[in-house]
Amino acid sequence: MKEIALHALDIIQNSLAAEASRLQITLDEAGDEITFTVADNGRGMSPELLARVSDPFTTTRTTRKMGLGIPLLRMAAEQTGGWVHLESALGAGTTLTARFHSNHIDCPPVGDMGETISLVLQGSPEIELRYTHRLNGQLFFFDTAQVRAQLGDGISLALPEVTLWIREYLQEQETILNGQKGMNL
Questions:
Q1: What is the Cα–Cα distance from 172 to 114, expressed in whole angstroms?
Q2: DSSP conformation class of 149
Q3: CA dist 93 to 109, 138, 177, Å?
Q4: 4-184: what fold?
Q5: For the chain, what are the domain ranges?
Q6: How many CB atoms lie within 10 A of CB 132?
Q7: What's the rounded Cα separation, in Å, for the pair 102 and 85?
């Protein structure tokens, strides 16, 4: 995968496959470190599966015999001198944190996290999702509970006009945050 946002999308898809109803996604860019975390309330993993999940020949999918998402993420992070950490408990959910060193030549760009979040909501409009992006002391926060409160009861986040607004809002806020990147050094 060529962007951190695509790695995040893969991890989020794992959360949704594990029947998560709540997601907390955090992207933190500070100094020369990029850290993203995806925490869910899905099924979680047994200690045995958690110990093997970084092996590309371990997967819970029935459509193929390989699971490359976490191994590729681990490789990408470790190539920059970073790491991946997983915590999980059956019935309680999973938290994955990945750290990259952005000053390393092999560090992938962050990519379009706004598009990633809007795609997740388009496919799973019922999910409770909180997204936080910190960039050198600046903060952007998005919460589907706040959007639903503004829309009122019975309005789906999957409606085309709502989906378009969410996508444009997220991209606008990411652009503003990234525009301030050099201001707080």
A1: 8
A2: H
A3: 28, 29, 30
A4: Heat Shock Protein 90 (3.30.565)
A5: 4-184
A6: 15
A7: 18
